[in-house]
């Protein structure tokens, strides 16, 4: 049976900040469609609280920001791409302000927050802790009249002719399939926090983009590096909302039930790197001791952190919130240049799903919104500078679904919680690898978006567990109890799929 085929200049998969910035850059000149799994505002970008990192104060500089980013990344960053990102910080914030984002100000100009592992206050925010909302609304308003939004239209697969990516196959909320052709397809699908039971991520963050890219032959790398945010509100039903690190930057302290400080042992105290704080909280909780975020030293809480204040109200806490770590951000992803080029011609990527090496083995707080803006802009400019003819007519027909057995989402989460969380070891990782080996999700294609989502999750979970087992050291967010030290032998080494010779580079110059 043939299905409807439509043609655009650029297909953007994802309506988060990264996709919206690309659209803002190109949509007055090119015919652009943006696809999303739900409503356009349903994304991790919309949920972002703390803000955008940039060296804006007089005693700060992009080099200091760069150094902090490399230190957090634990010797695993691409130094040059990281410099490109941090150098562009100031300009990016001014550009966003010029576009209409109402960042919070004080008497000195932008009000700058401080977050973990940043040497200086350098986080700009909007509406207190509602930065993501402000960014997404502003961008949506700017592109609304120039792009077509295809909400509740899930991308099931990327279409290829020979090596070239020529479009996508989607399914909409009525279960109808459509094929879309375009010379440029942009993956801006965000992360994969939903692989774990405790996560800050939106329910749509099931790692679809990694799986779409993998099946289309794109190179994935560094999948073992997953950041766990230390402070999710711990409720009776498991961890819930994120409590931004900026609260600790404003004086909030982590304490145990006897009032002792959790981070007393660390020189950076409550603002130590996220992996360190997450492990300290996990260790206390594994001894059966609850950990709380003490908000009493934070002045003007309701004004500065309205989201956190409303959480306190909803859950009935006054000043001490019980907290637990949860999956937050994926450092690895689809290998790409800062302007979004992948090894598959016609396929580009940006935002959390992309891996340009700027986050190393552990992301510095508030660098990902910056990445979405800076690299989204670069990708947009690349597309304008390298126009391509629309793909020649190709036959599109309904692909038969390839079915098979899959683990349930609950099973995937349980295995990932046990094997790939804050602490990892060979035994549970090997069990997880064996578990995922029982299935073949890479070849499972379905027109049912829920089955496809499970297949994507199982595929990505398998890649992550294999990588985490193979990396026999601890680095950044990847902590192996059986290999607790960083090892020189692993310096500069990335685990990639498909596996390529180290000297071969990633072939995306
Ligand atoms: C609670 C929270 C707070 C955060 N706070 C900050 C912060 O203060 N500062 C900071 O720098 N970072 C923060 N982050 C991280 C940051 O928000 C994300 O890394 C960033 O927003 C990712 O943007 P993105 O555009 O790449 O993806 P997202 O914003 O996640 O958007 C992904 C889009 O892809 C779409 N999509 C996915 N799969 C498909 C498919 N198969 N078909 C169609 N569409 C698809 C989704 O529907 C969605 O529209 C936070 C993250 C969370 C979860």
UniProtKB/TrEMBL annotation:
Function: Catalyzes the oxidation of L-aspartate to iminoaspartate.
Protein's GO biological process: 'de novo' NAD+ biosynthetic process from L-aspartate
Record-annotated Fumarate reductase/succinate dehydrogenase flavoprotein-like C-terminal domain positions: 410-497
The protein's Enzyme Commission number: 1.4.3.16
Domain of life of the source: Bacteria
Protein name in the entry: L-aspartate oxidase
Organism: Natribacillus halophilus
Stored NCBIfam families: nadB
Main location (coarse class): cytoplasm
GO (cellular component) term, any one: cytoplasm
Compartments (UniProt record): Cytoplasm
Catalytic reactions on record: L-aspartate + O2 = iminosuccinate + H2O2
Start and end residues of each FAD-dependent oxidoreductase 2 FAD-binding domain: 9-369
One Pfam assignment: Succ_DH_flav_C
Record GO terms (molecular function): L-aspartate oxidase activity; steroid dehydrogenase activity, acting on the CH-CH group of donors
Keywords annotated in UniProt: FAD, Flavoprotein, Oxidoreductase, Pyridine nucleotide biosynthesis
């Amino acid at each position: 049976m043939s299905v409807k085929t439509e043609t655009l200049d650029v297909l953007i998969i994802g309506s988060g900040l990264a996709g919206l910035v690309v659209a803002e850059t190109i949509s007055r000149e090119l015919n652009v469609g943006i696809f999303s799994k739900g409503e356009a505002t349903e994304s991790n970008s919309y949920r972002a609280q703390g803000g955008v990192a940039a060296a804006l104060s007089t005693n700060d500089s992009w080099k200091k920001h760069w150094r902090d980013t490399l230190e957090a990344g634990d010797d695993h960053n691409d130094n040059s791409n990281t410099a490109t990102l941090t150098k562009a910080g100031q300009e990016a914030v001014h550009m966003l302000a010029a576009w209409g984002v109402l960042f919070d100000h004080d008497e000195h100009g932008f009000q700058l927050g401080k977050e973990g592992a940043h040497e200086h206050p350098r986080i700009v925010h909007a509406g207190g802790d509602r930065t993501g909302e402000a960014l997404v609304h502003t961008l949506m308003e700017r592109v609304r009249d120039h792009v077509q939004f295809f909400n509740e239209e899930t991308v099931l697969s990327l279409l290829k002719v020979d090596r070239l990516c020529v479009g996508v196959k989607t399914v909409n909320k009525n279960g109808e399939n459509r094929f879309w052709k375009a010379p440029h397809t942009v993956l801006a699908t965000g992360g994969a926090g939903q692989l774990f039971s405790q996560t800050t991520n939106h329910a749509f963050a099931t790692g679809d983009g990694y799986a779409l890219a993998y099946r289309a032959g794109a190179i994935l790398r560094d999948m073992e590096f997953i950041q766990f945010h230390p402070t999710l509100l711990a409720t009776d039903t498991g961890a819930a909302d994120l409590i931004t690190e900026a609260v600790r930057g404003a004086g909030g302290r982590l304490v145990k039930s006897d009032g002792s400080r959790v981070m007393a042992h660390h020189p950076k105290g409550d603002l130590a790197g996220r992996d360190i704080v997450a492990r300290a909280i996990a260790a206390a909780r594994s001894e059966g001791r609850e950990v709380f975020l003490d908000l009493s030293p934070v002045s003007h809480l309701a004004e500065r952190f309205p989201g956190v204040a409303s959480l306190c109200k909803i859950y009935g806490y006054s000043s001490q919130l019980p907290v637990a770590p949860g999956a937050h951000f994926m450092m690895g992803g689809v290998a790409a240049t800062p302007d979004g080029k992948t090894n598959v011609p016609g396929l580009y990527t940006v935002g959390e799903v992309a891996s340009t090496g700027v986050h190393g083995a552990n992301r510095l707080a508030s660098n990902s919104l910056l990445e979405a803006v800076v690299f989204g802009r670069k990708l947009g400019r690349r597309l304008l500078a390298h126009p391509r003819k629309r793909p020649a007519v190709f036959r599109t027909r309904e692909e038969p679904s390839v079915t098979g057995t899959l683990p349930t989402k609950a099973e995937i989460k349980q295995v990932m919680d046990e094997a790939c969380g804050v602490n990892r070891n060979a035994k549970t990782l090997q069990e997880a690898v064996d578990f995922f080996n029982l299935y073949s999700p890479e070849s499972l294609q379905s027109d049912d978006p829920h089955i496809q989502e499970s297949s994507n999750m199982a595929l990505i979970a398998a890649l992550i567990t294999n990588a985490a087992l193979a990396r026999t050291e601890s680095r950044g967010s990847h902590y192996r109890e059986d290999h607790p030290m960083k090892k020189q032998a692993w310096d500069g080494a990335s685990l990639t799929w498909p596996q390529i010779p180290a000297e071969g580079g990633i072939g995306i110059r």
